[in-house]
Amino acid sequence: MNNQKLFSVLNITDNKTLKEFAKRTNIRVPKLRYYNENSIFPHSEDLEKILEEADLSEIEFRIKMGVIDSNILDLISNNSKQISEIIQKDFNNEKEQSHSAFQPKFETKLGKLYQEDSLELIKSLPKQSVDLIFADPPFNLDKNYESKMNDKLSKEEYKKWTEEWILGCIDLLKEGGAFFLWNLPSWNTYSAEVLSKYLNFRHWIAVDIKYSLPIANRLYPAHYSLLYYVKGEKPNTFKQERIPLEICKKCGADIKDYGGYKNKLNPKGLSLPDVWKDVSPVRHKKYKTRDSNQLPVNLLERVISMSSKEGDTVFDPFGGSGTSYIVSEILNRNWIGGEIGPIDSIKERFKDIDFHREQIYKIQSKKNTLFTDEMRQIREKNEHWLPVDEEVDDKDKEEKNSSTQVDIFSIS
Ligand SMILES: C[S@@+](CC[C@H](N)C(=O)[O-])C[C@H]1O[C@@H](n2cnc3c(N)ncnc32)[C@H](O)[C@@H]1O
């Protein structure tokens, strides 16, 4: 039985005790399972019946379940002295554990890769030593990882595990450092709750990639969530990235009607929005260095270029095929990595670093411009508008006064 919070609070240990509880409360078994497996707090009549059967007050039940609203938080806050006296000893015991130092299993000019459980690795690293954290944890979808790690935790276990590594990572981050977290939207709603308590929210970036087939009675899942937070009031580094105009791939024509504003577009490209449509899954064999879960290089190039500078330190606790490591190395960032499973594919990837360097040059040649060379050619051929050189010079001046630039996303 998948024994999550609710069932353990109610001492439901097996199907027999579950059925008995259902009978006594007159709440159907599937509904009790739904509350339990989805960590949903029971409401209205169901709540009353559960409290009565379990002989618990609502406040005790809420504290046991960890579902504490602001009223209870205020009460806890007002009685903090008495409460902390009760729980202080256990709290100290947890904090005082010692942490081992680890040796990297693979090193490059700029990086260190540890083949360890990142929960432990994080505790061993110096606090406030990292400028950028990028994390792409397993999504708990019961996938078969080379490391044979358990990718089918209960919801409660996964949330707890997530909270633990996130809190550890927050400690590692320098003031002004950036934290990016890639996951499914459903998981990132919980992670955001943890992150928002300690860090400053910048963006929920929707990365437009279809990640599963359409599901009946649901919207078609079409984006991954990339959370972006900083430690402290403002980021140490934020470089405004710009992207080319969206045009028809075949004929080069405009997709949107820019009316009379086209000449006012910044020739360095459009301001990067918080919906990214130009990140495609790694499909091509040549670019794909292992079976699954490999993030595209252009995603990491963007994140690392935007939020760190040369010489900074990037930490990624979930190495996989090492996309963030290879991109960090090429962009002259120091990097620290953790991977619990085999690291051969990461080492292999570094043997082919020149191939990735080329990839990154190509990616960089296509950003911070309104039209790439390819786009210019097709637009010239089909006689579509292009900014003339004088306009480019003028626009360079305008760059200093961003208020005069037109944001394409506000033009319908
Ligand atoms: C989604 S993949 C990361 C993919 C990576 N971003 C890439 O582009 O290749 C997650 C990785 O985290 C590793 N992992 C899972 N739990 C871990 C842990 N506790 N410590 C370190 N690595 C872990 C898995 O073995 C897996 O390779």
The radius of gyration computed from the alpha-carbon positions, rounded to a whole number of angstroms, is 25 Å
The major beta sheet can be summarized as:
9 strands, mixed
Query: What low-confidence regions span 5 or more consecutive residues with pLDDT below 50?
Result: 397-412
Query: What percentage of the residues does DSSP assign to strands (E)?
Result: 5-15%
Order of helices and strands: HHHHHHHEEHEHEHEEEEEHEHEHHHH
Compute the number of strand runs. Answer: 11
Number of domains: 2
Which superfamily, in CATH terms, is the homologous superfamily of the largest domain?
Vaccinia Virus protein VP39
- Please identify, by name, the CATH architecture of the largest domain: 3-Layer(aba) Sandwich
Helix content bin = 40-55%
- The name of the CATH topology of the largest domain is Rossmann fold
C-alpha termini separation: 53 Å
Number of helices: 16
CATH class of the largest domain: Alpha Beta
Overall outline? globular
Bound molecules: S-adenosylmethionine
